[in-house]
Structure formats: C-alpha cells, structure tokens
C-alpha cells in the first residue's frame, strides 16, 4: 500500500500520533533495520503518547490553575522548616484518594498561598478532581 492512501486512512481514523510516527519513519534511513513489529510498536507508542498529552493539556486547561507551579519546583534549602518527606507524601495524592482534606497553616511569609497552588497540578495530571480555596481569618 502506498504511503499517501495509508496516511489518508490514518487521518480518517484520527490516529495523528501514528501519522507523525510514520512520517518520521519514512524520513529515517536506518528504520528498515527494525522489524515490522518494532516499527508498529513505535507507531502505537507514539499514538498513545500523543493521546495522553492531549488529555493532560485538556485537563490542565479545564482546571484553570492560577499558577504553573509543581511540587518538583519547591526549594527546600530556604529556612522555612519544610519537611521534604511530608511534602512528597502529600504529593502522592493518597490523601485525596482517601477523601481527606488538607489545611495549610503557619507563620506569615513562609509561602502558604504558593503551596496550595502546587497541589492541584498532580491530581489534574492523574484525572482526579480537586479544588482549592483561600480562607481569611
């Protein structure tokens, strides 16, 4: 089968990741060293990755997070008394799966408003619903 009709059929099936992978394979001279199964596996992997990326992008847009912060960006070197083990445990999201709430408290100037902004990123990435709110005393 010729590449153009194949690409048209992949387009009809909305397999955009496979289209990109096939186009890349056509432009790579060493690709013929791989077996059919390996090449097909590369195409399927690319399609799956494209779909997961699209789902994540859609969820992040729908979440309308105010900050592009994540747990990996936390600086533990500053003297704020952050417990890295606790932060990583909270970052696992088990407390969300258990239906628990999280309240962050502490002295002025330690970054409490920035902390909750980091929590929703991971649940959104794992397709878990969550919400944040700021309470003033």
Condensed summary:
InterPro entries: IstB_ATP-bd (IPR002611). With 137 residues, this protein is mainly α. The chain is built from seven helices and no strands.
Describe this structure in words.
The chain has 137 residues and is mainly α. The chain has 2 domains: 3-63, no CATH class; 71-125, no CATH class. The protein is built from 7 helices and no strands. The chain has helices spanning 3-12, 16-27, 36-63, 84-91, 94-97, 114-118, 121-125. The longest helix is centred in the middle third of the chain and has 28 residues, at 36-63. The model has no long low-confidence stretch (mean pLDDT 78).
Which helices and strands appear, and what pairs or packs with what?
Blueprint: H1 3-12, H2 16-27, H3 36-63, H4 84-91, H5 94-97, H6 114-118, H7 121-125
Helix pairs in contact: 2-3
Protein traits:
137 residues, mainly alpha, 7 helices
What general form does the structure show? elongated
Low-pLDDT residue spans: none
Largest sheet: none
Compute the number of strand runs: 0
Count of alpha/pi helices:
7
Tell me the distance between the termini: 69 Å
* Percentage beta strand: under 5%
Class from secondary-structure proportions: mainly alpha
Topology pattern, helix = H, strand = E: HHHHHHH
Tell me the helix content.
40-55%
Structural Rg: 22 Å
Mean pLDDT, rounded to whole units? 78
Number of domains: 2
GO molecular function: ATP binding
Domain IstB-like ATP-binding: 9-112
Organism: Pseudomonas syringae pv. castaneae
Protein name: IstB-like ATP-binding domain-containing protein
């Amino acid at each position: 089968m010729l590449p153009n009709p194949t690409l048209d059929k992949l387009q009809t099936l909305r397999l955009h990741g496979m289209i990109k992978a096939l186009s890349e394979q056509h432009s790579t001279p060493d690709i013929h060293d791989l077996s059919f199964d390996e090449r097909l596996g590369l195409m399927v992997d690319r399609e799956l990755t494209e779909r997961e990326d699209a789902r994540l992008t859609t969820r992040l847009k729908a979440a309308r997070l105010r900050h592009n912060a994540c747990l990996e960006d936390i600086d533990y070197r500053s003297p704020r008394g952050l417990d890295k083990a606790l932060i990583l445990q909270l970052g696992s999201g088990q407390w969300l799966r258990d239906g628990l709430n999280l309240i962050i408290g502490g002295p002025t100037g330690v970054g409490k408003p920035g902390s909750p902004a980091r929590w929703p990123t991971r649940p959104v990435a794992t397709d878990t619903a969550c919400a944040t709110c700021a309470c003033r005393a």
